[in-house]
Design a protein that fits this description.
single chain, 718 residues, Rossmann fold
């Protein structure tokens, strides 16, 4: 053996070997019991980040473990088209080139988009393999692939036939910068210190964090059980505003928290989800104060055209001057922002397409217990969100993705009206209809210009990847998936979507085990981001310390649902420690294989651990074998329960301290007698360690007596 372990050479050699020998390929026709793992699809424009590196390492460890246990393993990879993010990235590139999507036009822009997709994919896809991911790359799925398109059309048509899809003007989350409606799964919440403003509304004083929406108030509200205001409910009061005096009613509504501020709130149905529902219950009018660019509308008088934050500051002097602003307080609250551009999200009324979610939610709540969550508290987190779910806004004003498959007859439905599935001059089709309109007999079709929400296709990920709605061999064999993984935070909403859609369309849960790993944050507890400059590039760590060492460092952060903190220095320290652990393994291998004092390594055809046990006459031999047996049990149990951090800790302690420091030292004066035990323990350690450190374990395993062509195909130790 070489004195020094050449990590780069070994990694390239064995990954190519595994792929060439088809060790990653699933075989649906195999009689072995299946075990399926589904990779969350990274965005097509996304380079490998620390979250991907952790997910890929965990997926690969479970896949390799199950393969060694004798399962027919499918680890299926895929890529998401990432509508809003992809389009935003491409449009910035076009701006630098002095053009835009509108100058190019839809057809030319889409040609450029597909070219950009290929360029982006080719530049980043190779890095997804670098963590040693044993995925069946021959089955990789892109969310705009034809088989996914078929699933999406089936989804839309089914909802349409079931009267669960409708179109209309309702309140949505709107990102002014991306100029699109977004869903809860695309919203993050930032804790911010702002002001709470106490405003005089007639005889009442109320607290608000958003005085700029005052122009859209159509009522005041209190809790009907609040004794302070019980006698005033239903009465109308004259209120001074910045655009003159107005009359406003006080309504009673259970949604009001009497402990917030003074117990009185202003109701702005056009710019708050809570207020919108209050407005519906009390038949309140809707006034639009903020437009889709995030600026105040003409209703705001002299403040019209100002951005929200700008208008807020500009209004304060006048509010004070007129005696409307009574006092200000420091106020810490969560503010919704777009996960992509971090722009504050505005609730506004917009005409969009929606899916009625109550039927899906009710079924999901009854059967969500069939999914095993790690950590377990996520079942309640997801259930609570589903209980309070609102209808799903599925339309986006984009060009990249699935265009809504609704066609309007311009002759009899020129304004694109849709009341229900029986609407006049409307047809559902992926391609331009060839039939005549059933209402007027003409062929004058035009497609709805909006696109489907990215999550409309991503929500079908567990099914579409296996060929649903067709009953394919793969679907029969591997569905529902045995293992799915995600970060917690807002991504649990994606998991909720997949559960609801899978139960609705297949009457099965999408996955048996749902693992939420924690987030690695910076030392201040913040997410890594380009704007903060606190990011850690996993490729740099991998190149410096090796893939095996980086994987082990990431496993130390992989406790279910538990966030960790790190910076480049602390990650370097952990990776260096595990690089040293790899060096220790290499030196153990050299001691057992090269420094054997003329002890011949048996060229055995069968490796029988019972023979090794019988040959163990020395007390030290017996003790190490007993400790090895205990280690096998602990590591197996921790892998079965997805506690990979505990499994790696156990192996580290046993190999370094029990095996190397104690037992190997005890064998130096009796090598010939101890050699069978040394070989057996080391080979077993390598097999136990393989799911976590695949490259060095394969390299060393090949150098000692073994059965089979690869450690990947070795039987899991028992």
């Amino acid at each position: 053996m070489d004195k020094v372990y050449n990590q780069q050479e070994v990694e390239n050699k064995w990954y190519k070997f595994w792929e060439d020998e088809n060790y990653f390929k699933a075989t649906p026709g195999d009689s072995k019991k299946p075990y399926s793992l589904l990779m969350p699809p990274p965005n097509v424009t996304g380079a490998l980040h620390l979250g991907h590196a952790m997910q890929h390492s965990i997926l690969d460890a479970i896949a390799r473990f199950k393969g060694m246990q004798g399962f027919n393993v499918l680890l299926l990879p895929g890529v998401d088209h990432a509508g809003i993010q992809f389009e935003g990235t491409l449009n910035k590139l076009l701006e630098k080139e002095g053009t835009s999507k509108y100058k190019l036009g839809r057809e030319e822009w889409l040609k450029r988009a597909w070219k950009f997709k290929e360029e982006s994919y080719n530049s980043v896809s190779a890095t997804w393999r670098t963590m040693g991911l044993s995925a069946d790359w021959s089955r990789e799925v892109f969310t705009l692939d034809p088989k996914v398109a078929k699933a999406v059309l089936t989804e839309f048509k089914t909802f349409w036939e079931q009267d669960l899809i409708y179109k209309g003007a309702y309140i949505v989350q709107w990102c002014p910068k991306d100029a699109t409606a977004i869903e809860d799964v695309e919203v993050e919440y930032e804790e911010r210190k702002e002001k709470l403003y106490y405003l005089k509304y007639g005889p009442f004083t109320l607290a608000t964090a958003r005085p700029e929406t005052k122009f859209g108030d159509t009522a005041m509200a209190v809790n009907p059980n609040d004794k302070r205001y019980k006698n005033d409910i239903g009465k109308e009061f004259e209120i001074e505003t910045l655009t003159g005096m107005r009359k406003m009613k006080l309504v009673g509504d259970e949604a009001i928290d009497p402990k917030f501020g003074t117990g009185v709130i202003k109701v702005t149905p056009g710019h708050s989800f809570v207020d919108y529902e209050i407005g519906k219950r009390h038949n309140l009018p809707i006034i639009h104060v903020i437009d889709k660019t995030g600026r105040l509308t003409e209703i705001a008088g002299k403040y019209a055209g100002m951005k929200v934050a700008e208008a807020r500051e500009a209004m304060l002097p006048e509010l004070r001057e007129k005696g409307i602003l009574v006092k200000e307080e420091e106020y810490t609250h969560t503010v919704p922002v777009c996960e992509r551009c971090k722009t504050v999200v505005e609730p506004i009324i917009s005409e969009e397409w929606f899916v009625s979610m109550q039927p899906l939610a009710q079924k999901a709540l009854k059967r969500i217990g069939e999914v095993s969550f790690a950590p377990k508290n996520y079942q309640k987190i997801i259930s609570d969100w589903i209980k309070n779910i609102h209808d799903w806004c599925i339309s986006r004003p984009l060009w990249w993705g699935y265009q809504i498959p609704v066609w309007y007859c311009l002759s009899c439905n020129p304004t694109h009206q849709v009341a229900n599935k029986s609407s006049r001059g409307v047809i559902i089709s992926q391609n331009k209809p060839t039939e005549n309109c059933s209402s007027c007999g003409k062929q004058d079709w035009v497609q709805d210009e909006q696109l489907l929400d990215t999550w409309f296709s991503s929500g079908l990920w567990p099914m579409a990847t296996l060929g649903w709605p067709e009953n394919t061999v793969e679907f029969e064999k591997y569905f529902p998936w045995d293992f799915e993984i995600s970060a917690g935070e807002i991504k649990y909403l994606w998991i909720a979507r997949m559960i609801m859609l899978s139960l609705h369309f297949t009457d099965q849960i999408p996955f048996k085990n749902m693992f939420f790993h924690g987030m690695i944050r910076d030392l201040q507890g913040r997410k890594f981001s380009k704007s903060l400059g606190n990011g850690i590039d996993p490729n740099e760590l991998r190149e410096q310390w090796g893939t095996d060492a980086l994987r082990m460092a990431l496993f130390s952060y992989s406790a279910p649902g538990r966030d960790g903190r790190a910076n480049k220095q602390t990650m370097d320290e952990r990776a260096k420690n595990f690089r040293n652990f790899g060096t220790k393994l290499w030196n153990i291998g050299r001691f057992i294989i090269d420094m054997k004092s003329n002890v011949i390594l048996n060229e055995v055809k069968e490796i029988d651990s019972s023979t090794t046990l019988r040959s163990a006459q020395n007390d030290n031999d017996k003790q190490i074998l007993e400790k090895l047996n205990k280690t096998i049990k602990e590591v197996t149990k921790n892998l079965e329960t997805f506690n990979l951090h505990l499994a790696t800790e156990t192996l580290y302690e046993f190999i370094w301290h029990e095996f190397a420091d104690k037992y190997i030292e005890s064998t130096k004066n009796r090598r010939e007698q101890a050699q069978p035990v040394l070989e057996h323990v080391f080979r077993t350690c390598l097999e136990l360690l393989h799911p976590f450190m695949p490259f060095i374990t394969e390299e060393l395993w090949q150098k000692i007596p073994h059965q089979g062509k690869s450690i990947m195909a070795a039987a899991w130790p028992e």
